[in-house]
Amino acid sequence: MSGAPIEFYFEFNSPYGYIAACKLGDLAAKHGREVDWKPILLRALFEVTGGRPLAQLPLRGDYMMHDFARSAAYHGIAYRQPDVYPFPPVAAARAVYWAKDQDPAKAGELGLALYHACSRDNVDIATPEGVAGIAANVGLDKDALLAALETDAVKNRLAREIEAALKKGVFGSPFIIVDGEGFWGADRLGMIDKWMQTGGW
Amino acid sequence: MAGTPIEFYFDFNSPYGYVGAHLIDNIAERYDRTTDWYPILLGVAFEKTGAKPMGDVPIKGAYQALDAARVCRYYGVTYKHPDKHPFSSTAASRAFYWVKDKDPGQAKGFAMALYKAALADNEDISAPASVARVGASVGLDQKEIMDALQDPAVKQRLVDETNTAVEKGVFGSPFVIADGEPFWGVDRFEILDEWLVTEGF
Fold first, then answer.
1. Quick check: is A57 in a domain?
2. End-to-end CA distance of chain B
3. Distances (CA, A) of B193 to B27, B35, B157, B186, B189
4. Residue A94 to residues A53, A99, A120, A159: CA-CA distances in angstroms?
5. CATH number for the domain including A132?
6. Alpha-carbon span A68 to A19, nearest angstrom
7. Region B50-72: what's the mean pLDDT?
8. Cβ contacts of A172 on chain B, cutoff 8 Å
9. For chain A, what is the domain count?
10. Is A173 domain-assigned?
11. Which range marks the domain in which residue A33 is found?
């Protein structure tokens, strides 16, 4: 057991990503691990893979809406699709990396707070102001974040992270990497648990 | 409703369908339910949804190969990715319905033998003669299968079954419908199981 952090790739618009976000902290703690929160933009991944949002595909789209509600109920997660959906997740994603550089522990706290805001509380996190309001709630400096979101360094950071994610084989949300082993989908949490427990099979 | 068979849809090319075939009857038995198996041609469903076989999608394809093998190992299902994949599953699927009509008790055993030949033993089951040979190995009449596979009614049957499945919303493999509730993927069997316990949630 290496104890390395669990890499958690997700997009804030992804409802299955929200299920993983709600469950992963406890799962990691059970195995004495940290979660490394790595927001990505699905649009950028889909440009490479030719993928399309599931919700837009005939038959699959209807199934997905139904399946998602059922999966959330199964996991006991109260999900509420925000009034504006899908929303631009860029500011939120950039903010998480900014927070990580201030204090790695804060990145997870901010990531989960942003996810609760947009997936449970119908709070708009599309704008820098919306994101900064949530950041203030978890004790981050609102003005510093607003200033940072204007900088090229923060903008480029997200682009670099997405490129690196693609190189690691990330193509969807949630995508979780444990000790180099990639798992796509919130429905792989049980296997991830077993993988950490046994070291793989 | 509770007495109706659980519908199990699959494509003989699908390793996840192969795992599902190992599991579905055991799940059904726990709740005193029966199952009804329906091989389909995924290519026809993909025409409707605009989806591509996962294996053809950049990055995602490589993941799928890894994941399929890992899921098979997880469930203890012997799996070898066939040299030729995807292969035509038309003859195998046609023969299945012919056997099912003639002797329903033999149909599932025949399907498992076909699946094992294709996905564990690296046998090419695309040709009628190969399908008939697999049939002979489970006590079916080789020549009768060869003759049946020439029968226009047998050919039409598969077209009809696949169309009916797509009309019901089936777009992947495995796909289960229990009491009208759809479940896509072997990774939904856990939720299917819970669904059968609670009759919905």
1. yes
2. 16
3. 7, 14, 31, 11, 6
4. 22, 9, 21, 9
5. 3.40.30.10
6. 9
7. 88
8. 60
9. 1
10. yes
11. 6-198
Q: How many CB atoms lie within 10 A of CB B128?
A: 19
Sheet holding A6-10, edge to edge: A35-39, A6-10, A175-178, A181-184
Residues of B near A (Cβ–Cβ under 8 Å) read 45, 48-52, 57-60, 62-63, 66-67, 70-71, 73-74, 166, 169, 171-172, 182, 184-185, 187-188, 190-191, 194, 201
Q: Is residue A32 part of a domain?
A: yes
Confidence of residue B133 (pLDDT cuts 50, 70, 90): very high
Q: Which of A23, A59, A74 would you mutate first to test chain B, the one with the most B CBs within 10 A? A: A59
Write out the DSSP string of B181-198. Answer: EEEESGGGHHHHHHHHHH
Both tokens assigned to A123: 């709070």
Surface-to-core class of residue A108, CB atoms within 10 Å of its CB (0-12 exposed, 13-18 middle, 19+ buried):
buried
pLDDT digits (tens, 9 = 90+) for A71-123: 999 999 999 999 999 999 999 999 999 999 999 999 999 999 999 999 999 99
Q: Which residue has the tokens 């490479």?
A: A48
Is the pLDDT assigned to residue B151 strictly greater than 80? yes
The single-letter DSSP state of residue A4 is P
Amino acid at A119: S
Domains and CATH numbers, chain B: 6-198 (3.40.30.10)
Residue B200 corresponds to which tokens in the numbers above? 């919905």
Q: Is residue A140 part of a domain?
A: yes
- Name the amino acid, one letter, at A118: C
Name the residue among A170, A182, A187 with its Cβ closest to that of B188. Answer: A187
Neighbouring residues of B197: CB distance < 8 A, sequence distance ≥ 6: B31
SS3 B16: helix
